[in-house]
Amino acid sequence: MASVFRPGALALISGGASGVGFAFASHCRRQGMHVALLDINRETLASASSALQAIDNKLLTLTYEIDVSDMDAWAAIRADVETKFQTIDFLMLNAGMAIRTTSPWKDAAYFHKTLATNYFGMIHGLVTFLPLVTRSPSPAAIVMTGSKQGITNPPGNPAYNASKSAVKTTAEQLAHDVRTSGSSIYAPHVSAHLLVPGWTFTGLSGNLGPVADEEALKTKPRGAWLPSQVAEYGVAKIERGEFYIICPDTDVDEALDNARMSWAAGDITEGRSALSRWDDKVKDEAAGWIQKEAERRRGQ
Fold first, then answer.
1. What span, in angstroms and rounded, lies between the C-alpha atoms of 177 and 134?
2. Contact status, residue 242 vs residue 217, Cβ threshold 8 Å
């Protein structure tokens, strides 16, 4: 089967002007793809466009300034994209934000704002551009960016965790429906994927704009991955047709991630307290079990 990442194809990426989104955009450009970047920051969009043109200026780079929570803005972008392309071959819904409040349980606006961007921003993009993806006669892929916080659900930022948990659920439903005969969006040539970065040096952690790896390395925390590492790991998983793309980082390997997720699922199946990993009565037991489970997995 032909690769999604192929010359002449179109990639459309929200949150594409920096971080993981731009790293995927750069990979797409190096494979000979046209790229449409969507982002809220006009300056980083301009910088990202210049960087992609420097890779190959014979290919088209489209840029759109957008607040992804605005459904009407998505419709306007689709109208423009369709004047140039009939299909989208790689759709990445990646835009996100992390805000905090001192009193989350007294602040409804904190929940509304977080979900408007992190969840409904993705829904808007999906509803707007899914028809262009399924219309493609060639292999196509949709990637939705989640978070480990949407799986293990650590305390501290409930709105962010809820938004990323919703992304996970939606991506799973999407993957099922595009592969299932009789579904209203059945498209066996389209794959859906949930990208879950580990600790990554992005705009959420101080790495702003389309920064070259050699520059990012000067200030990157030791344990964090570069966005380009996430893209490399993610592309390999997409090419193999894997839905769950749970990225490690320098501090946390795949075995430890899997052990933590297994413990979290066990809160339900074993009847433990909610978020027992952080429960003072259970956290020592949790830490010991997770360590042993990770070691067991490494030895397999």
1. 12
2. no
Separation of CA 175 from chain center: 15
Classified as helix, coil or strand, 189 is: coil
Q: What's the rounded Cα separation, in Å, for the pair 178 and 186?
A: 4
Contacts of residue 284, Cβ cutoff 8 Å, sequence gap at least 6: none
Contacts of 56 (CB under 8 A, 6+ apart): 29, 30, 32
Q: Convert the pLDDT of each residue in 234-291 to its tens digit.
A: 999 999 999 999 999 999 999 999 999 999 999 999 999 999 999 999 999 999 999 9
DSSP string, 140-161: EEEEEE--GGGTT--TT-HHHH
Nearest partner of 243 among 173, 292, 194, judged by Cα: 194
Domains, the chain, with CATH or none: 10-251 (3.40.50.720), 253-300 (no CATH)
pLDDT above 70 (res 50): yes
Residues 6+ apart with CB under 8 A from 158: 104, 111
* Count of other CB atoms within 10 angstroms of residue 203: 23
